[in-house]
Each structure stands twice: as C-alpha cells, then as structure tokens.
Amino acid sequence: MRLALRPRSRQTDEELMAVVVSGSERAFAELYRRYARRMEGFFAIRTANPEEAADLVQELFMRLWAARRNYEKGRAVAPWLFTLAYNLVRNAWRHEDVATAYAEEAARADESEEETASLHLDRDTFDRALAETLVTLTPDERTLFALRFEEDLALADIAAVMAIPVGTVKSRLHHLMSKLRKKLKAYE
What is the CATH number of the domain that holds 69? Predict the structure, then answer.
C-alpha cells in the first residue's frame, strides 16, 4: 500500500487514519501523539478535573481503535475525533453531578475575585476573568467556545461535532459572544 511507504510523520491525518483502519498500531500511535494533548485540553476544560480528562483521553482513543472500521475514508480526522470526544464528555456529564462541580468552581472564582482589590487590565487578569466566566457557561456553551476559539474549527465542523445545523452554530455563537461581552464589560 502506497500510504504505508511514506514516513508517518509526513502523512496527513486522513492518510494515517486510512492505515489505522487496516489495523496499524504504529499509525494509531502517531495519531495519538498528534491529538492526545489537544484532546486532554478539550476534556480538561469541560470536566475541570485533570485526572478525569486524562481518563477520557484514554477512553477516547480506545473507542477510536474499536470504531476504526466505521471511519469514512477521506473524512477530516479532527472533526471526527472532536465528535467522539464531545459525545464521550456528554456521556460523562450524564453520570456525574456536574452542576455541583461547577457551583464549587464558581464559588472559588468568586472568592478569588473578592481578594482582588482593584482591576488590573493586564492579560493575566483578563485571562483569569475569562476562565471564571467560562465556568459559569453551560456545557454546550463551553464546548462551542472551545471548538471555535481554542481549536479554531470551522462553523461546518463545529456543526458536525455538535450534531446541529450551521445556522444554529451561528446563532449560538452570537448569543455566546453577547453573554461574554456583558460579563467581561469591565475589560473593554
């Protein structure tokens, strides 16, 4: 097979996935190397728990291996992986008391806010305020934010990951940005 002759590091994700479909553990290891850290960040933001994020990365790649034959040849790998990841984290939310975890995180954010006597409009302060604000968003809003602004996915890819129409993605992004502008108004 021609794909197997190219060095793995030079193959596109789609070429690697085509080799993974045939059972190549080396190609799978290369995909893991390319995406594990990114997926861990994706999960960490959604779970607010680094250990759970690491567990979800392992689960994601175990599922990828198990579902490799379901991969549609030529389909972009990144959106497919994010779809698997999004579904995995949604399942995790169903099994946990997420509202309690986010309430605790918001309370910690409020405490740190009270300790800050004045606003310093520097990047670190804004980043902290943004992180505190993101914690207050719904899980779908955080996912939308991450896919668009952290992972820089196209609207069509976000729609595919979240299984919603592109128009809905646009509408939700508009509402999300309005919400963020209101909450972060002090930083304009």
Answer: 1.10.1740
**Structural domain count, the chain:** 2
Calculate the dihedral angle through the C-alpha atoms of 63, 69, 70, 73, rounding to the nearest 10 degrees: 120
pTM value is 0.60
Domain range for 57 is: 8-77
Express each pLDDT in 41-65 by its tens digit.
999 888 888 999 999 999 999 999 9
159 domain-assigned: yes
Q: Which residue has the tokens 């379901």?
A: 70
DSSP per-residue codes, 24-57: -HHHHHHHHHHHHHHHHHHHHHHHS-HHHHHHHH
Are 164 and 141 in contact by the 8 Å Cβ rule? The answer is no
Indicate which CATH number applies to the domain containing 178: 1.10.10.10
Give the CA radius of gyration of the chain. Answer: 19
Note whether 101 and 181 are same-domain residues: yes
